[in-house]
Design a protein that fits this description.
Strand 8 and strand 9 form a beta hairpin. This protein has 515 residues and is of the alpha+beta class. It has 20 helices and 17 strands. The chain has a five-stranded mixed sheet, with helices on both faces.
Amino acid sequence: MDVRSQISMVFHLDKCIGCHTCSIACKNIWSDRKGAEYMWWNNVETKPGTGYPGKWEDQLIYKGGWEKQGDDIGLKGAGKRKGLTNIFHNPNLPVIDDYYEPFTYKYLDLIESPAGDDQPTARPVSLITGEPMDIKMGPSWDDDLSGSPDYARNDPNLASLSPEEQAAMFQLERMAFFYLPRICNHCLNPACVASCPSGAIYKRGEDGVVLINQDVCRGWRMCVTACPYKKTYYNWQTGKSEKCILCYPRIEAGYAPACMHSCVGRIRYLGVVLYDADKLHDVACAEEDQLVDSQLDMLLDPTDPEVIAAAKANGMADSTIKAAQGSPVYRFVKEFGMALPLHPEFRTLPMLFYVPPLLPVMASLGKKQNEDQELNTIAKRWDDQWLYDTSTEDLWGTIDESRFPLEYLASLFSAGDTEKVKIRVKKLMAVRIYRRHKTVGDISKERAEEALAEVGLTAPLADDIYYLTSLAKFDDRFVIPPAHREEAIEMLENTGDRKGNLGFGFKEGTARRGL
């Protein structure tokens, strides 16, 4: 058992309000330089929607991630052979129009224009060429379902729904959306690392953060193709690739990353998880219907004496083990069983997990009244106010027939397995029913306990979920181990310079550059 530590994250989508404060915090710190104007290391997408860059989830276009090749896996659009053939012309790279051409306005024209009969305007100009341009795309261009026919209806995840279900989702009475914040997943099996011809991208051994050595990068951009989440960007000014660094200087100083520190909805959690690196290859090569379970099984219990002994034998500091024992990520992912990885079918083993949204909320669920109208059975008109019936005859309402299909969420978070999403949505619902019983009292204790028991929860566990979701303080949401400079020095001594490509793990000669 090769026990290693990984800084991991959970985003609770039921709490995201789509304010984009996280994106602005990241932009102001890391990517406000020339050549990086179009980069959004952190972005918030509206789902359904095509995302950023457009249709990034469609690997028939971009050829990102890994694919099964017999009993092994290989990169879809990169690697030694494919990289050599595409090294001077890569047809799978997103172009600037898939993002947007960065622009500004000629504000001085408003001040310096000569007097005249017409009101002067500040024309948009390209930040790349400096020439006037017509703005056709921008960051969060399809926010809140804006331009739905061109964006939301072209969401690749809608392919899992029938034409009738797709049409129903965009009927005004049934329309729903949620926000999906995204950063680099700092994967356990990162395709970007494995694809780099220069060896510039590496995964740090002490915390698993994936970084790009700017001195070694030669701008081949294979990492842009290989990353299925399109979270590696090319800086057209410096000729280097750049990506989210998880604010590692802040983490090393004991501070949360900027996007997480600024999060208004407090949807973000950061902590250490321990995993068995000996299982990496088998997990990445698992059958598609076993990918999620295999990845979660690879995460180890930090309180298990055997795991602790193996971690210490591998050189892990006591403070890191202690941080793993208090990790909110481990609680959400393993103990509560409420979080899932984004697109596990890409086989990168992402270390950013999402609690799926409870859509629609309790007030929108109820038994069908007839085939054409299933949403109005809960809402009752009384004295010009909407009252919500929380004592529906069915315990779970009509989760299977909700206006946001489980098949869509399953396409995002469980490689199409609706049962994995359903059980997590039911846990969210069960905690809500339980809290309704405790705070409002219009649900009986027996009914609340029945709801918890059906999804494998107990009252104390439901209270823990409620606390960590709604009442958790800063130190509960971000459990960050102190940085150990001696580990970095030890790795440097054990592995040599290797052109700055460090981060090979605690054991000498254990390279961590993907499978």
